[in-house]
Specification:
CATH architecture of the largest domain: Alpha-Beta Complex
Number of domains: 2
Order of helices and strands: EHEHEHEEHEEEHEEHHH
Number of helices: 8
CATH topology of the largest domain: Spore Coat Polysaccharide Biosynthesis Protein SpsA, Chain A
Distance between the termini: 43 Å
CATH superfamily of the largest domain: Spore Coat Polysaccharide Biosynthesis Protein SpsA, Chain A
Structural class: alpha/beta
Length: 276
């Protein structure tokens, strides 16, 4: 199968080691756009000198998953695009099977590898039509999107669920494909610099995105009812870890509470981890 119809987009942030393994699992005939969420010129030079098929765009700051992927996707000129996490490794036939499925199902919007979702879907000839995909590998039919992809209000979490919801609202087709195998290490795209800072970041954005997502689809008051147990739990644990002198745990739950509060009052998803 020819690969001229496909461009791969990978968003990185301090993912130097992980992305090398990913790139080594991809044919050098396929154009790749890396969007690095920093101004790391050394990383850009290293990647582009080592891989002639890779263009590395430096965003200049940590924009998160949605904005960075949109930067890459808007540069794509091919019929299809594959968004990958940097901590993925493609099996030998993954790209070929993506392209086969795309050409046999021309009205698709998105395709994802089945991986651990196999048991939860009804497959026919390796395919199952589904309502959502996991975000580590999403294959786009670019003609269906009119340059509108991820909701840029999401910095981290829920962005792929929201994307799939938007596709379903437009009666678009989303498929899982059992023939596509992609190894995803999970929660390891950023190299292990500061586990506490990463945990604070995850907690803040998980809570911010949870409220924002539910508000977007269910309205403010129902979203508030959904998030209140998380708010009370975070507040209780802040007090507990404060009186037991566990600063790290206190800071993590403070970030959870802060993420909820900022989302409720309508602030943008502003929190950024300190990893230097």
């Amino acid at each position: 199968m020819e690969s001229k119809d496909l461009t791969i987009v990978i968003v990185t942030f301090k993912s130097d080691e992980k992305v090398i393994n990913c790139l080594n699992s991809i044919s050098n005939e396929i154009p790749i756009i890396i969007v690095e969420n920093s101004s790391n010129k050394i990383f850009k030079s290293k990647i582009e000198s080592s891989y002639h098929n890779v263009e590395c765009i430096l965003s200049g700051q940590n924009n998160g998953y949605s904005i960075a992927n949109n930067i890459g996707l808007k540069r794509v000129k091919t019929k299809y695009a594959l968004v990958l996490n940097p901590d993925t490794i493609l099996s030998k036939d993954a790209i070929k099977n993506f392209l086969i499925t795309a050409r046999e199902n021309k009205e698709f919007w998105l395709i994802g590898p089945a991986n651990d979702q196999i048991g939860s879907s009804n497959f026919k000839d390796n395919l199952a039509e589904v309502k959502n995909l996991k975000g580590f590998a999403i294959f786009f039919n670019m003609s269906k999107f009119s340059n509108k992809f991820f909701d840029e209000n999401f910095f981290l979490y829920f962005e792929e669920i929201d994307l799939c919801n938007q596709v379903i609202k437009k009666n678009g087709k989303i498929f899982l494909d059992q023939s596509i195998v992609i190894n995803h290490q999970g929660a390891s795209s950023v190299k292990d610099i500061n586990k506490i800072e990463l945990e604070k970041n995850r907690n803040w954005h998980w809570m911010w995105s949870t409220f924002y997502y539910h508000k977007k689809y269910k309205g403010f008051f129902l979203a508030l009812l959904i998030i209140i147990p998380n708010l009370l739990s975070a507040l209780t644990k802040i007090i507990f870890y404060l009186i037991t002198f566990n600063k790290n745990k206190k800071d993590i739950y403070y970030c959870r509470l802060s993420g909820i509060f900022n989302s409720i009052i309508g602030n943008k998803s502003w929190y950024r981890p300190s990893l230097d």
